[in-house]
Amino acid sequence: MKLTYDFSSFLSEKAWAMAYQRGNFIHKAFYVFRGYLSRLITLFTLNRYDFIFIHRELTPFGPPVFEWLIARVFRKKVIYDFDDAIWMADQRQENFLWKTLKWRSKVASICKWSWKVSVGNQYLGRFASQYCNNVVLMPTIVDTSVHTPPSHQERPMPVIGWTGSHSTLFYLETILPALTLLQERFEFEFLVIANKNPNLPLKHFRFVPWKEETEIEDLSLIDIGVMPLEDTEWSKGKCGFKLIQYLSLGVPAVASPVGVNNEIIQEDLNGYFASSTEEWVSRLSILLRDHQKRTALGNKGRLLIEEKYSVNSQKLTFFNLFRGA
Fold first, then answer.
1. Tens of pLDDT along 98-140?
2. Residue from 223, 221, 226, 219 nearest 272 by CA
3. Which one of 20, 235, 236, 309 has the minimum C-beta count within 10 Å?
4. Strand ranges (DSSP E) for 31-76?
5. Strand pairing report for 189-194 and 135-137
6. Are 158 and 223 in contact, with CB atoms under 8 Å apart?
7. How far is Cα 274 from Cα 295, in angstroms, rounded to an integer?
8. pLDDT, tens digit, for every residue of 266-287?
């Protein structure tokens, strides 16, 4: 099946780089205005397309006016895709103004107007199924020709690593007591790859700013990946991208048994689960002391990604989104 497509982002790369910086209010307001203008212009080009694929939302603030126009007025087949529980407030409390601006209820409305809805896990699928009869499970995937295990490297000490954005750094607080205890027994480095430095009080802590062009190279520095989560409704909407990245590179992982993590991690086959400080210490200790165990679990993890979470494994599912009456 051959598809031709155009891509349109609400914000430019330059605007995204500025979005989470303090200040620059006038510039930010300009970029938001330009984003809304570009969406308005897009409405006059819809005759070119058979399908409109919407990831998360067309605009960051206010009601889903553009989604309604596309689906109800222009009668286009909308395929709506989301990979977080975005109908809820963020995992940290939102004030009333921000909650109003984000208009969280629009997710249900867009599902209702959509021809198909594509979701990253079953928890998200159950929500979408309340409003749309055609919901497709499309797990988070990676390109395994790019995400490839690195050649073996001798390191002074094993590296435990985490990657994510500033908005999820707080999850590291849950495992900090375990890491503090572990550093009394083992020599290891704790590596964080993110867009903000958490400055963790650990003996061998290292921060690497996230960059798209060096992401795979930086992730390849990790010997053991971690994905702690809080057991909340928001966390159940997460799609396990960290775990998928770790395992694709042949890196075993320790994760909280929450949401889709339970489907990705296979205990003692490609990683371990941990729910308490004691369990985090125990599971990480196994991997810190046994290089061969890390290698064996990492190899199994790589096979899982190739079978279920790779571009090749989900290609047909994706193309089928654009098939049907």
1. 777 889 999 999 999 999 999 999 999 999 999 999 999 999 9
2. 226
3. 20
4. 51-55
5. unpaired
6. yes
7. 20
8. 999 999 999 999 999 999 999 9
The C-alpha R_g of the chain, in whole angstroms, comes to 21
User: Residue 176 corresponds to which tokens in the numbers above?
Assistant: 């900090």
User: How far apart, in Å, are the Cα atoms of 298 and each of 243, 252, 294, 309?
Assistant: 11, 5, 6, 15
CA distances from residue 233 to 90, 129, 173, 238, 325 in whole angstroms, order as listed: 11, 17, 19, 9, 34
> Residue 146 is encoded by which pair of tokens?
């790019």
Q: DSSP label at 174?
A: G
CA distance 313 to 308: 6
User: How distant, in Å, are the alpha carbons of 35, 46, 111, 293 from that of 39?
Assistant: 6, 11, 19, 51
* Residues with Cβ within 8 Å of residue 133, at least 6 apart in sequence: none
pTM over 0.70: yes
CA angle 205, 210, 215 (to 5 degrees): 105
Domains of the chain: 13-138 (no CATH), 159-308 (3.40.50.2000)
Please name the residues in contact with 39: beta carbons below 8 A apart, sequence gap of 6 or more: 10, 58, 59, 66
Ramachandran angles phi, psi of 2, nearest 5°: -110, 130
**Which of these, 48, 58, 44, 34, lies nearest to 5 by C-alpha position?**
48
What's the CA gap between 159 and 148, in Å, rounded?
Answer: 18
Which residue's structure tokens are 């390191």?
155
